[in-house]
Every structure is written in structure tokens, then in C-alpha cells.
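Researcher: Sequence recovery benchmark, item below. Answer with residues only.
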């Protein structure tokens, strides 16, 4: 019997989704369309309206928080029997299954689960046993590759694995030894939870059959974010009864960099040809102008399920596009607008500032502090609290005050240089016995027999490093150059480049922003000094007492998914910033990167309930120098009637910067490059590109230009990197440094 009490609050399409209980169902849930309510009411309806045993229902979410919220709301309707519905994340679901069944795979049921830090520690131990130098092969890179091997079930003898290049043999050796050590420890890492469950179902059909009987009705939230191995799990469990309901929005698929595969949701009707497709398109969150603008933007993507969002909410005010001279003016305009909104009775907590990269927060943080506006960084640290920033500043503090033991201990083995806890303990002992600072103990003890030859050599190299940094400082050059020298000379930059992960790229961005901070400080101060800058940065880190008016929230666009605010500010809408430079570099080779950037912009825009502000700058500081930037193509993809351009003189600039969208994918074809073009002069970069030029890229490392094509601002380079990868890059966007 259908219970109208829980169906009465649904719109007709939501109601249809709740009542569609049998067979495969794809619920395409647009932003702000009430998908969580639909999922919850669907589970309630299965029990109340259809008489399904709660134990036969599986609900899979991506976060524990989402699972808890779902369980709590179902409990209010169903009471205690709601506890019998299995609602959990993928990892938690697999862990519970393995606790019962893992003995079949040769593990004990009391296995332990290693987190990322545990996994990294084990990888380092394996590297030590195999005599692999961490300076030559990054443990974090290995961890990321091992995660990929498991997540995508990569064949170690297949072409995908061989494409890794010269490091594939070492990766294979470490992976196999790592897995053996895990087994000996009766331990699993996070990816093993999923991988071993898939293997269990594959090797033991009777076990799979039992769980297929248990989970006759399956619901998966955020299906667009599933990766390959999660896809296999869902397919296996749903194979028998096919009562599988997935909910998601391909337009909000923004986690490709961590393995999410948009094909899973796009191909659902191929996997289940008789699937019912229900589109939730009524938005309850945002005003009409925001919804229509976001819909127009995302319509430029080709890989999507056709749909158009609509709302019964008011028209709302126009989206303000604010053109700024540079990022400093951008920050000032953001803060001025927040103060104006506050005067209109919006609270600080109603305002959120989104940016593409963590490094962009620094200038905004500076301005918020200057105007004494309380703020919080959502899902991250404030700029001067970030590890890489604190590390480089610790090196610089040591130049001024060698007796600063806190700074010394922070960086004596950062990056790793073979100075371990035992050596540091010995230094502490000498310091205490002689009543001198740690640095003095270091200087005075190298001649004695206090350390092993290896430790003594490492300590001597560290002293030489500090001496070279001090010499650079005493030369009296610019602070910006000192910061650049420190980042390179310490090996910090090289280590992050070798790490080659998304996280290390973000950390490199923060170091570039630190260089910008030094350049800005020197330009502002009459008598700039290292001491002055360090004092200023230290004061930035003082904790503040926040007012009852709450705090402005700052976050990356990736962190914004699932949230909403009355007023949203998106900064840095420029080509090379948003869309990200990486997407521009790989645009011809992989147009999917640009489409993901556009989805990210769509997610950011649809977080706004009432007011949306978009900012771009005519120039932006990169590595201490101002570089001109073009407005983002995303600004040109929003209907002009929904925009209010802040500076009328720049309206023409926005509309003249339309960038033609590429409509088809093309693989790299080396024949595209004209061998006759032996040398090409790049007038913008004042560089002569030719075959054989050695270059360094902040993400891909060192490489050699193999071929050159085009001229002026359309020069394309085919570069072969040391990893073995070949990349076709646009010279104007590629951030290549010529090294030979």
C-alpha cells in the first residue's frame, strides 16, 4: 500500500523515481534537484510500500557523512528496522564482506587496514630493502602508481603498464614486494578492500551468489564518481536481479584525476539496455539567471546526457563579471563586494570564494586580513600554514638566526638527505652537554667520532647548503631571487617534480605563489628585508577570534561540490588558470580535460543560491613576474543577457576573446609535424624552438623537443620526456624551461 505521507512532498518526476523500484533505473539528477530526498524516499517506499525486507536493500554512498545522514533520515520514518538496511561507503561495504569471507583468499579475518601514511611507510621500507634511492624515485609517485594499478586492475605485462616507461621495472618490483609485505602483515590498503572483494566474487561464485541474494535492491549515489573497480563491484552484485538504481549527474563529474570514470554513467543504458532513465531537472537551489547561465555553459560539452535545468525560483539579479587589472585588484574587489553585501544584511558565512588552485588563496587571504574580515579555508590550510611554505620559510629563518632550533629540526632532513632520528638525537645530546645551540653542535661535532661516515657526509652537505644560501642572501640581491634560489638549491622543487602527483603539482603552485609574495613585498616596501618579510608572514599565522557574524569561506572548486551559499565568488577566470594550464597543454591530445574543467565551472556556478560574481584579471603574477592573461572561454559561453559587466570598457575584451571549441578527439600523429620547419622563432616568448632543445616541465620533468610545428602564438612542440611519454604541447601555454 503506497504511503502518501512520504510521497506528498515530491514533484511528479521525483515521485516517478521513487516508485520505479523494479529493474535497472538511471536517475540523472541535475544540480539542486533533490536527489538525496529521492534516494531516501525510495528506500522508505521499498520497505513501506513494497514490503521488501530491509536486509535486502544496499545503499552505497561516497562519504561516511552521506551514509549517516541517509540512515538518520530513514530512521525517522521506519524506526529501528532502518538499521537492517545496509547503507555504507564502497570501502566500508567491502571491509564488512571481507571480514566474513577473506579467509578464502588466504588472509585472516582480523586483518588490519593501512591508511595512506602506513602505505607510504611500507613503500619506503621496500625501497630500502631493494636499494632504491628515494631521490631518484619518489615514494609518493610509487604509491600513486600502485593505487592506479589496483584501481584500474592494470595487467603488469600489458601495454598500459609498459607505457610508464623506464621506471616500469622498478615499479613492478616494488609493487610485488609491497604486496608480499602486506600479506605477511595480514594487512590491506584502501584499494585492496575493493580489489580483493572483486577477486573474491570472481574466484568464488557461491560467495557472489550469496551476496546477490542478500542485496536484491541496490542503490548507488554519485554514480558519476565511480572508478573502474567500483563499477565492477556494482555490476557483479546487480547481475542476478538487476534491481539496480544509480543516481548521479555526468555534468558534475570532476574527479577524473583520482580515477572517476564518466563512462560508467554515460554507458549505463548500454550495460542495462532495458534501463529506465529518469531526469530530475527542476532546481530548488538557485535563481533563474544562475540556472540558465550554468545550463548554457555546460551545453558546450559533448559527452553528456541531454537535459536542461529549470526552476520556479525568482529571476534573480544578473551575474556580475568583474574585470580587474591584476590579482591584487581582484582580491580588493572581492572583499569590497563582501562588505557591501554585509551592509545589505548578508552575513560573512553566507559568502564563499572559490578558486581553481590552492595557491590563489594567498592574495585573497592578505586582503581579508587587511580588512579584518574573519575567514576559514574549507578542506585545507591557510597559505602560510602549508607545509611547503613553512619549510622554505624555515630555511630562510635559519639564515637570519642559525640558533633557531625549531627551524633547524624542521628542515635538517627536508627534503630527505639521510639524516635520521639517531643522528638528530646525538646532536641534541651534544647540544645539551655543551650548553650550545643545535646548529653550533652541528658545526662543532663533525670533526669528532660522533657519527657514522654516512651521517657525517649528510650533515656536512647540509652545512654546505646553508652556507650557500647565506652567501646568496649576503650578496644583497632581490628577495624574490633568494626565494627562487632556496627552492631550487634545497632540492625541494626537484623532489616535487619527481613526485609527479596532483598533490605535488599543487605544492609547486604554492611555492610559485610564495615567490610572488616576495616580489609583491619588495615592490611595496621602501626598505624591504628578509627579516621584515618573515616577521610579516609570522604575524599572518596568528589565530584570530572570529566574530558572531561568522566567517567567509574560501575553498577550491573541487571542494565546493555538494555545498551551497547565498553568494558565491569565483576568481581567476582566465585561460591557463581556469581552465587550468594542464587542460590547455593537452587540449588537442585530450579534449576531455577541457570538458572536465567546464564541468568544474558548472559545479562552482550552481553552488550559488542568489548571487554569483565572476572575476578575471588582465594580468597575473607568475614566478614574480606579471604575465598577460586572456579571459576564460567559459565567460564567453554564458549568454550575454545574464551578465552585468563591471567595467564597460572591458566588455569588448570579453566578447572578442571567443575561443573556438574543438569538436573531435585526435590522437598524436607525429606526421602532423613538418620536418621542414627546422627552427621557429617565438616572438612572444623570445625563444627559438628547434629539434633537440632540452626542456624542463613542472609536471613531466626533463625532456627533449623532437619536432616543431606552427608559428607565432600557435607553435606546437612534440616533447619526449625522460619517463618515455611523448606530449604534444602548445608552446605559449606549456611552461617549458629551456635547460640546454
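Model:
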Amino acid at each position: 500500500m503506497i504511503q502518501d505521507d512520504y510521497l506528498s512532498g515530491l514533484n511528479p518526476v521525483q515521485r516517478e523515481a521513487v516508485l520505479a523500484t523494479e529493474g535497472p533505473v538511471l536517475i540523472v539528477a541535475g544540480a539542486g534537484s533533490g536527489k538525496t530526498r529521492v534516494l531516501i524516499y525510495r528506500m522508505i517506499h521499498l520497505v513501506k510500500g513494497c514490503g521488501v525486507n530491509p536486509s535486502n536493500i544496499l545503499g552505497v554512498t561516497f562519504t561516511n557523512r552521506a551514509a549517516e545522514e541517509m540512515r538518520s533520515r530513514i530512521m525517522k520514518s521506519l524506526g529501528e528496522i532502518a538499521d537492517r538496511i545496509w547503507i555504507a561507503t564502497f570501502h566500508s561495504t567491502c571491509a564488512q564482506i571481507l571480514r566474513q569471507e577473506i579467509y578464502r583468499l588466504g588472509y585472516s579475518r582480523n586483518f588490519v587496514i593501512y591508511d595512506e601514511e602506513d602505505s607510504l611507510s611500507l613503500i619506503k621500507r621496500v625501497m630500502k630493502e631493494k636499494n632504491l634511492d628515494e631521490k631518484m624515485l619518489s615514494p609518493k609517485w610509487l604509491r600513486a602508481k600502485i593505487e592506479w594499478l589496483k584501481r584500474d586492475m592494470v595487467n603488469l605485462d600489458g601495454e598500459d603498464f609498459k607505457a610508464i616507461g623506464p621506471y616500469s621495472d622498478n615499479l613492478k618490483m616494488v609493487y610485488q614486494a609491497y604486496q608480499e609485505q602486506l600479506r605477511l602483515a595480514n594487512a590491506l590498503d584502501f584499494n585492496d578492500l575493493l580489489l580483493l572483494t572483486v577477486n573474491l566474487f570472481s574466484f568464488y561464485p557461491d560467495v557472489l551468489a550469496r551476496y546477490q541474494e542478500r542485496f536484491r535492491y541496490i542503490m548507488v549515489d554519485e554514480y558519476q564518481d565511480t572508478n573502474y573497480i567500483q563499477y565492477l563491484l556494482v555490476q557483479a552484485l546487480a547481475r542476478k536481479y538487476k534491481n539496480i538504481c544509480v543516481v548521479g549527474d555526468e555534468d558534475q563529474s570532476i574527479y577524473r584525476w583520482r580515477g572517476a570514470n564518466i563512462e560508467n554513467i554515460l554507458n549505463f543504458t548500454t550495460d542495462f539496455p532495458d534501463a529506465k532513465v529518469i531526469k530530475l531537472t527542476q532546481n530548488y537551489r538557485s535563481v533563474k539567471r544562475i540556472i540558465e547561465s550554468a545550463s548554457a555553459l555546460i551545453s558546450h560539452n559533448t559527452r553528456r546526457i541531454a537535459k536542461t535545468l529549470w526552476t520556479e525560483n525568482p529571476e534573480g539579479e544578473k551575474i556580475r563579471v568583474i574585470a580587474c587589472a591584476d590579482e591584487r585588484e581582484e582580491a580588493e574587489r572581492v572583499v569590497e563586494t563582501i562588505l557591501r553585501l554585509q551592509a545589505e544584511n548578508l552575513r560573512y558565512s553566507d559568502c564563499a570564494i572559490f578558486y581553481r588552485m590552492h595557491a590563489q588563496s594567498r592574495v585573497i587571504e592578505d586582503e581579508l586580513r587587511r580588512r579584518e574580515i574573519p575567514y576559514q579555508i574549507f578542506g585545507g590550510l591557510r597559505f602560510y600554514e602549508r607545509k611547503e611554505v613553512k619549510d622554505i620559510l624555515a630555511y630562510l629563518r635559519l639564515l637570519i638566526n642559525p640558533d633557531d632550533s625549531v627551524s633547524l629540526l624542521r628542515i635538517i632532513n627536508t627534503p630527505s638527505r639521510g639524516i635520521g632520528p639517531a643522528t638528530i638525537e646525538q646532536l641534541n645530546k651534544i647540544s645539551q652537554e655543551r650548553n650550545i645551540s643545535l646548529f653550533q653542535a652541528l658545526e662543532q661535532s663533525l670533526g669528532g667520532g660522533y657519527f657514522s661516515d654516512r651521517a657525517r657526509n649528510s650533515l656536512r652537505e647540509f652545512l654546505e647548503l646553508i652556507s650557500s644560501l647565506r652567501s646568496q642572501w649576503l650578496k644583497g640581491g632581490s628577495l624574490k631571487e633568494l626565494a627562487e634560489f632556496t627552492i631550487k638549491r634545497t632540492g625541494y622543487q626537484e623532489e616535487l617534480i619527481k613526485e609527479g602527483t596532483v598533490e605535488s603539482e599543487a605544492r609547486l603552485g604554492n611555492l610559485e605563489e610564495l615567490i610572488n609574495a616576495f616580489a609583491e613585498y619588495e615592490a611595496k616596501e621602501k626598505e624591504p628585508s628578509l627579516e621584515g618579510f618573515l616577521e610579516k608572514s609570522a604575524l599572518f599565522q596568528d589565530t584570530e577570534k572570529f566574530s558572531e557574524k561568522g566567517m567567509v569561506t574560501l575553498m577550491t572548486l573541487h571542494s565546493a561540490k555538494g555545498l551551497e551559499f547565498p553568494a558565491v565568488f569565483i576568481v581567476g577566470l582566465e585561460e591557463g588558470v581556469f581552465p587550468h594550464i594542464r587542460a590547455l597543454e593537452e587540449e588537442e591530445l585530450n579534449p576531455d580535460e577541457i570538458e572536465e574543467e567546464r564541468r568544474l565551472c558548472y559545479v562552482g556556478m550552481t553552488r550559488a543560491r542568489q548571487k554569483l560574481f565572476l572575476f578575471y584579471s588582465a594580468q597575473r603574477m607568475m614566478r614574480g613576474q606579471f604575465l598577460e592573461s586572456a579571459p576564460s572561454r567559459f565567460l564567453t559561453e554564458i549568454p550575454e543577457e545574464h551578465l552585468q559587466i563591471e567595467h564597460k570598457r572591458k566588455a569588448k575584451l570579453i566578447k572578442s576573446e571567443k575561443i573556438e571549441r574543438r569538436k573531435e578527439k585526435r590522437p598524436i600523429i607525429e606526421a602532423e609535424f613538418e620536418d621542414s620547419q627546422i627552427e621557429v622563432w617565438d616572438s612572444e616568448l623570445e625563444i627559438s624552438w628547434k629539434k633537440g632543445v632540452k626542456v624542463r616541465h613542472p609536471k613531466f620533468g626533463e625532456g627533449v623537443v623532437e619536432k616543431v610545428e606552427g608559428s607565432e602564438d600557435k607553435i606546437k612542440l612534440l616533447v619526449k620526456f625522460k619517463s618515455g611519454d611523448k606530449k604534444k604541447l602548445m608552446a605559449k601555454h606549456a611552461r617549458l624551461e629551456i635547460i640546454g
